[in-house]
Amino acid sequence: MKLDKTNIFLEQYLFNDVKQLICSELSLSPIFFENLYNHFLRIYKQEDSLKEFNATMHINKLKNFDQSIISQKNSYGIDLPVWFSAKNKKRKKIMLVGMDPLRDKNETGLINEIASLNSPYSIHNRVKNNYYPSISLLAENYDIYITDVFKLFFREPKNSSIVSNQNSSFRALKIHTKLLEKEIKLFSPDIVLCMGKQPVNDGLAKIGLTNFIPSIVTKVNNISLSKIPIYAIPHATGLASKHAKKFMVEKNNSKYNSKTYILDAVNLIINK
Questions:
Q1: Which of 47, 184, 211, 214 has its CA 20 to 30 A from that of 234?
Q2: Rounded to whole angstroms, what are the CA distances from 114 to 29, 62, 78, 121?
């Protein structure tokens, strides 16, 4: 797949603001942040990744997280936001919000040590990526900012099927909504599009939004954030794909195509 020159991955107009936010809230050094995003960019461009660059960080560096809640876990992961833009600043902006940085069991090895760092849906690794075809089409006409409600993920060491988003104490940490609200204000999107109901219920609902109404395009206005319209659609991959098909075909009388699903959903939203 050729790189579309009209789409700019990690365009500079957001870079310094995102760096300041992430470094402050997730305790990353600016140099490490720059190296990490250079790493993302090189992989996206299908260039050699940075030699000897280790895309991980120690959990105990997360100063704004309660260590009594997040320590002694396993399979840690952290996803950091990425964006697609263009030099035409008059384009509308869409913020895509997912749930959390899902990781395979025991991916990082030792308990209470290291989190692997990635982008949401691993979108920077666009080759064979299930989301990239649809998002790249969307980015032809919109600036896109992609993030997760929960930037951190972990599994319980005694039962790896129990994950961080099932931990009520973890979900209640103020860092989640604090970061998300700052991201919304920073990007100032015209539309926020949530992938699934969880990002609404566990994230956006806590900063002034009503709950997701299943199986229909749902619009709610967030008064505290300049009345940005918020929509939620079924998740695009995995077990949720059957809900995505139902959403498109039965609820909106439209064709379902996994490679264009997100773009098609946005078109439905805009044309309603």
A1: 184
A2: 16, 11, 10, 20
